[in-house]
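hey team, just a heads up i'm posting the complex here instead of the shared drive bc the drive is being weird again. everything in one block, sequence lines first with there labels, then the predicted structure for the whole assembly after. its two chains so it's a bit long, scroll down
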Amino acid sequence: MRLRFLLPLFAFFALVGVLWIGLSLDPRTLPSPLIGKPTPDFDLPQLHDPQARFASTELQGEVALINVWASWCVTCRQEHPFLAQLRRAGVPIYGLNYKDTRTDALRFLARYGDPYDAIGFDESGMVGIDFGVYATPETFLVDRQGIIRFKHIGMITPDIIETKILPLYRQLEAES
Amino acid sequence: MKSHPMLLTLLCVAATMFIAPTALFAGPTAPTMEPLTFDTPEQEARYQNLIRELRCTVCQNQNLIESNAPLAVDLRRQISLMVKDGAENKEVVDYMVARYGDFVLFRPPMNRTTYLLWFGPGALLLISLSALGLILYRRRSQLGPAPLSEDEQQRLRRLLGEDRGGKA
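-- predicted structure starts here --
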């Protein structure tokens, strides 16, 4: 058969390929410009104790997870057990309670458990903006120097924990 | 009255043509629930312009002025504060890009990752035009000889001896 008759077929398959890739991409997942940069500076009251502070300086010297959550966020509730699983694996987890009320947030933790080492209470959402948060939950992995090394938007799943977070956590832990 | 589908279509097209441009250019104004005061009209104009140029990352096909997502409200407030503090447009845009990436710009900058975006359509047009040109060129060579002119027709008739009987 002559090649020219096959050309439309090739073009068709090329189009199918491009559309297939396009469909598999999630337009909601944006690359974060914060990867490789220091965590934004913040100094927030703690959720449990309005007198105590939780500041970005406390993230230095430790590989830790920062989880942005809110009691009104349904996905955060689904994600919650997996945060506890990470905590049991030994990963320090800090919370950023985003645009929430203290009562609702504390009730949420009382009901579903509290895996966080400390929680900053970001009522206005301004620290969230500094972190480029646009879809809770969002999770950041920060290295010892306070540099953001990984960001995940949306729910943390066991798959993401096993394939992304824990390997990178162990690698960053091993770095001096 | 029985509605005529063709007429209906025409009406819809006409309506779109008249309504769409006004909707585009007038655009929505900022929701009235956030009263904003600026020191100068120039500041307000810059603010209004900025929130049209920047995309809401929550509802990704809206700009900040159209969106009522809580984040868009916060970002509008933040931008208004920055403008009132005398921040240049570039400072505001840099502030947004530093947090949300180039994605927030409805007019993306030209860099390595956006060359395809900027030049892709032009390249596609160029490729298709040259393909069209090539096909037309080839087709021309496949055509038979040009039709005979009036003189040639007469000469043909003469040669074929049609005027032998004395009539053309």
